Every structure is written in C-alpha cells, then in structure tokens.
Amino acid sequence: MGSGAIGGGVGGLLHRAGLATTLVARGEHLAVLRAGGLRLTVGHDEEVTVPVPTVGSLAEVAWTDDTVVLLAVKSQHTAGAIAGLEPHRPASVPVVSLQNGVCNERALLRHVEHVHGVTVMMPASHLSPGRVTIHSAGRPGLLDVGRYPGGVDAVDEAVAADLVTAGFDSVPRPDVMAWKHRKLLMNLGNAVDAACRPGDDAAELVDRCRAEGEQVLAAAGIPVTSEADDRARRGELLRPLVDRDGVGSSSWQSVQRRTGDVEADHLNGEVVLLGRLHGVPTPANELTRRTVHDVVRRGAPPRTVSAAGLLETLDAQSARS
Predict the structure, then answer these.
(1) What is the pLDDT of residues 205-219, one digit of tens each?
(2) N or C: lower Cβ tally within 10 Å for the chain?
(3) What's the angle, vertex CA 193, arms to CA 272 and CA 217, rounded to 5?
(4) What is the CATH number of the domain that holds 304?
(5) Predicted TM-score (pTM) of this structure
(6) Which tens digit of pLDDT belongs to each residue from 81-102?
(7) How far apart (Å, rounded) are the C-alpha atoms in residues 191 and 282?
(8) Total domains present in the chain
(9) Distances (CA, A) of 320 to 141, 211, 316
C-alpha cells in the first residue's frame, strides 16, 4: 500500500520472485502501472518491466487468510492510509510499517491489533509514473522486521523469509524500534538534503540536527541501536550507486516531484516534539523543519536554500539566549 520508491521496489521484487503481490497506487502512477506494468531497475541491471497486479483501492484487493499489508506510504499519509484500511481490512490481517520515522506504528496500533515495524535501509527513487530505481550494487535493501512494540512472531518470520526470497536481506528483530530510532537519527538529514545546497555548511547543519536527536532520545530514555552496530549491519550488503545531482533522499524526491508535502514533521518534528516533552532545546531541527516546509509552500526547487544562512540564524538565536 503505497507503491513509490520503497513500496514499488519491494512489491516489484516480491512479484518477480513468484510471491503473490498486489500494489495499491493512485493517480497517473496507477494508470501507468495498470497499462504497462512497473519499470524497475536494480543496481547495474537493465530496466525490466514487472507486470505486478495493481489496484486503486483496498476495495479491489482479494483478501486471503495469509494476506499481510505492507504499508509504504510516507508518514504524512499514514492517517489517510488508515482511513482507507478501516472499511476493507479483515481484523486478523496484520499491518507492517515499511516506513521511515517512529510514529507510524503507534498510530496504526489504535486501529490494528497486529502491527509490525521494518527498519528500511534501501536507497531507491521514484521520480516519474511507473518507474522505480533501486540504487544499490549489493542487496537491494536491508529490511529487518519485528513486532510493535516489541518481540517477534510467526508473521515476522514469514515476512522476513519472503523478503529474502525476493533478494533482500531481512532479519526478524525483537528490538526493531531501537533500530528504527537509529534510522530516525540518520533521516534527520533528509530535510537538509531537500532544502539546502550541498556543501560543508549543509553537512554541519545535519550534524547539529543529529546531535540534538541523540540528546533528545537519551533524555527520553528511548533505546537506540549504536552507530557501530548499525554500521556492522550494513557492512558490504548495501553499496549505493547514487548520483547526488540526479537523486536524493525521500524528502528531496518529494520536493523534486512537487508533491505538495514532505515528511519532515515526522522526522525532525519527532525530535522537536520529544525535546519539548523532555526539556531539551532543538533549534536546528525546528529551523530545518520550517525551512523545508517553506520550500514546499513556495514550490521552489530542491537544494536552493543557503545552509550557511541557516547556521547564522541558529548562532544568532544561541547568542541571544
């Protein structure tokens, strides 16, 4: 459900591996997928067309006893996805959050009894209808899965096994949310990538956002997988082939495609929220969040804001306080 860079890539490879898969899409993307299939490129491979079945709503899904929903919409669309799920999903069908951020699983749990989370490590892009590119010369992605709020069950084992069959690396993890919080810290740079011109100043702004994130998660007492364990997990399995001028983070893709929204409220905004709850200042994340929203509202191209100017604003705020 959500067939962009992540959902389309995962769904396409599941279907290509012979696993019964249905994509849920919308708009022009839906029309192109129905007319000609998914045009998928993985690493150095040539583009292939994958004729994966695609529907426009869950009313068209043929539910079975072993159906699992892989929810791959961006976090700002989770509420709408839940509204679409409610009338059609059988109560026993689990939902697996194949999403960045750490707020989706809790939102889902209000409506779905069996919720699972996935730590998504998958460099992929979706910039035009019907096309998805996975930018890795190694495994197409690392997709570790676990039950929310913790533990592992038969669903996690089955989903991980299917993902491995499709070519991914996937491990069932009882502490999947600790891994997702480490991924959250990495994703704090997405808004900077979307809004700011690349360079040393942008890198410093990302460092400040991540430092605030580390402080906030420590103050909140939230378990976070260490950087060393995260690096070891990635190892040589992911070898991204990313042209920085031609592709970027999921937030960069939203701005580039002019979708009219961006995920920052659920990434940088998560740090801002926790900071306010636990008395930790988070000026870099708040300024970054507001800046990328301003870029979206103005319809400006990505990577056009001066990170040096944002750093000056932050330093001036710090001096006044």
Answers:
(1) 999 999 999 999 999
(2) C
(3) 30
(4) 1.10.1040.10
(5) 0.95
(6) 999 999 999 999 999 999 999 9
(7) 15
(8) 2
(9) 45, 21, 6
